[in-house]
């Protein structure tokens, strides 16, 4: 009883939406049979199926029955009033509803999470399901019903049904998907006045050019492709959907009225409409793949930009830009180092918005990072951006932001430590092209470490600064794998990699050298600083807890050694200089690891 009551209540709440869908389906079906049903057969263009298919695609299956019933009644009514008649209204309604339902079910089956035509895969699924498989399944029954009701030939009507339903669905379904999926409303909310006027102007141009092409006998069929591609490039998937809808609506009405240059004068209207369908196929195959590929490339570019961000906290800095930024983005303080690094005096930027000196393309990303830092006062947020120096040169910068809180604990702004990383960004691009990263930890591999060592030691010849190589080896790693399994070992490696990232500077190089061995190249530091960083890594790993797949807690320690990087010292020699500590018994004691670090540091001091 309670179940029936819940069902009745749900149907009552969904009834208005189902009635609205049924009304839309009725109008679309009535227009199709009114204008494109010729020679007593089936309609030559069908645009009702996409309404049902897309609506079911985004609804839970428990809501399907009411919507299917509303559209079935609408289909039967349209067939009785303007179609093949009441004698086949019910079986044709069943065929139409099966078509829309099958498309929705198959799309959910092969693409459970809709991406709103942002991937080539979804577009291919749409073409195969809605443009080939389902229309082919419903075409034969429809041809037989048309023959039974009107005595028309079966084969031509099977072909006409297939073309009409396949092409109509592919043409109308994208804009219905964008509307029901929220893309159109989302675009409308965020679009500014200029973009809205541009979209309206391009749409008007598309209507005007299409009307001109189909209202005359001049060979202007491909002229509408110009505003079509303008809409695609300026509005993406929405532009493709709008242009195809305009092309379908204007072209269908004009062709049905005998206008347009589709065929020479005297050609039957049915033949003209079929050739117009072929024309729409060409337009669809131009617009939809182009719009989908543009969206895919935009998303791919965004992913690459995000993947290039390196999250690390830099400690003990000197000579970096220090900035205090209010909640609204106003710069309240800038350190004197700003003049040396970027060419601006602190007074020239104080009181200005930070976005004024940031590259336009990165304003949104720094605003997002600024808000994130204030939202979590206990976290340090790292982000990278481009800005112009006083000289006009565009450079990359890295900022570490932390919230400034008042006495009540509320964030009032952020303090930022900023450094230029243009050289590192250039090096990252080279390394990314070489794909030289360890797949498990995401750290650079031994080849990258060797290249960085060669670069640093070359610079040592000119600068005379100090650099050190640290070699880390996880203690008892084989026993961890044997006892807890290799998945636990992988978790340990990843956790240690995160610890290393968090304790090195942006111009240092950290890498996985192989197995449980990791290396860090400290550039331009003295031995004490390098030793302090190694000790932080050692202490943090000793305090870390990794949960094994079995639920057990896994702890481990690390042995570390230091060796000086010299202009005449190869990487292998430097690593070998740090290696002798591993001969000593490792009993898992933190004190033992610390003493080994002190002894290898002493050796590094003697060598350096």
Please sum up the structure shown.
The chain has helices at 2-36, 49-57, 64-82, 89-110, 120-150, 154-180, 183-190, 193-215, 225-235, 237-256, 269-307, 337-342, 346-349, 363-375, 422-434, 446-463, 477-484, 486-502, 527-543, 571-578, 590-607, and strands spanning 321-326, 331-334, 381-388, 394-405, 411-420, 467-474, 509-514, 517-523, 546-547, 553-554, 558-564. With 608 residues, the protein is of the alpha+beta class.
Low-confidence stretches: 306-318, 582-596
The helix-and-strand class reads alpha+beta
Mean pLDDT: 82
Instruction: Bin the strand percentage.
Output: 5-15%
Number of helices: 21
Backbone shape? elongated
The end-to-end span amounts to 86 Å
Helix content: 55-70%
Q: How would you characterize the largest beta sheet? A: 5 strands, antiparallel
| Tally of domains | 4
| Tally of DSSP β-strands | 11
Q: Please compute the radius of gyration using only Cα atoms.
A: 34 Å
Strand order of the largest sheet: 2-1-5-4-3
Pfam families: GGDEF (PF00990), MASE1 (PF05231), PAS_4 (PF08448)
Protein name: Diguanylate cyclase (GGDEF)-like protein/PAS domain S-box-containing protein
Region (Disordered): 586-608
Domain PAC: 381-433
């Amino acid at each position: 009883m309670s179940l029936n009551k819940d069902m009745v209540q749900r149907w009552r709440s969904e009834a208005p939406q189902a009635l609205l869908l049924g009304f839309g389906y009725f109008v679309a079906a009535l227009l199709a049979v009114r204008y494109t049903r010729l020679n007593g057969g089936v309609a030559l263009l069908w645009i009702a199926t996409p309404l049902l298919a897309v609506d079911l695609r985004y609804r839970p299956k428990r809501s399907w029955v009411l919507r299917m019933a509303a559209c079935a009644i609408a289909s039967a009514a349209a067939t009785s009033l303007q179609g093949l008649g009441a004698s086949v209204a019910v079986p044709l309604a069943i065929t139409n509803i099966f078509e829309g339902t099958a498309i929705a079910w198959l799309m959910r089956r092969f693409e459970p999470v809709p991406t709103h035509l942002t991937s080539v895969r979804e577009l291919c699924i749409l073409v195969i399901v809605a443009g080939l498989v389902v229309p082919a399944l419903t075409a034969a029954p429809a041809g037989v019903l048309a023959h039974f009701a009107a005595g028309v030939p079966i084969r031509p009507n099977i072909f006409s049904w297939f073309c009409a339903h396949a092409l109509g669905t592919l043409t109308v379904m994208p804009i219905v998907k964008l509307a029901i999926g929220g893309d159109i409303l989302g675009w409308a909310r965020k679009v500014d006045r200029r973009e809205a006027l541009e979209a309206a102007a391009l749409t008007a141009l598309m209507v005007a050019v299409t009307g001109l092409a189909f209202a005359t006998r001049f060979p202007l069929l491909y002229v509408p492709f110009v505003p079509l591609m303008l809409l695609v490039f300026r509005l993406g998937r929405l532009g493709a959907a709008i242009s195809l809808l305009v092309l379908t609506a204007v072209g269908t009405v004009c062709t049905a009225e005998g206008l347009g240059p589709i065929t020479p004068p005297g050609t039957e209207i049915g033949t003209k409409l079929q050739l117009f369908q072929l024309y729409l196929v060409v337009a669809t195959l131009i617009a939809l793949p182009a719009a989908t590929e543009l969206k895919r490339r935009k998303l791919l570019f965004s992913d690459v930009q995000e993947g290039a961000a390196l999250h690390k906290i830099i400690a003990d800095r000197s000579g970096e830009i220090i900035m205090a930024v209010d909640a609204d983005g106003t710069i309240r303080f800038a350190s004197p180092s700003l003049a040396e690094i970027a060419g601006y005096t602190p007074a020239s930027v104080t009181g200005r918005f930070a976005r004024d000196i940031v590259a336009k393309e990165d304003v949104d990303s720094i605003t997002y990072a600024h808000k994130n830092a204030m939202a979590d006062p206990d976290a340090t947020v790292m982000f990278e951006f481009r800005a112009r120096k006083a000289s006009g040169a565009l450079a990359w910068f890295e900022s570490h932001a932390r919230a400034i809180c008042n006495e009540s604990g509320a964030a009032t702004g952020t303090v930022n430590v900023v450094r230029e990383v243009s050289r590192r960004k250039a090096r990252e691009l080279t390394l990314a092209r070489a794909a030289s990263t360890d797949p498990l930890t995401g750290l650079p591999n031994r080849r990258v470490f060797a290249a960085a060592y060669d670069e640093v030691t070359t610079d040592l010849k000119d600068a005379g600064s100090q650099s050190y190589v640290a070699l880390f080896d996880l203690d008892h790693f084989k026993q961890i794998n044997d006892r807890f399994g290799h998945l636990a070992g992988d978790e340990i490696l990843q956790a240690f990699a995160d610890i290393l990232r968090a304790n090195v500077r942006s111009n240092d190089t950290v890498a996985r050298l192989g197995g449980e061995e990791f290396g860090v190249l400290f550039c331009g530091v003295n031995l004490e600083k390098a030793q302090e960083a190694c000790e932080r890594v050692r202490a943090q790993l000793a305090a870390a807890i990794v949960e094994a797949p079995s639920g057990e807690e896994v702890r481990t320690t690390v042995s570390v050694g230091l060796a000086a990087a010299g202009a005449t010292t190869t990487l292998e020699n430097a690593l070998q200089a740090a290696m002798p500590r591993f001969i000593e018994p490792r009993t898992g004691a933190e004190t033992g690891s610390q003493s080994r670090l002190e002894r290898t540091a002493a050796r590094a001091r003697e060598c350096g």
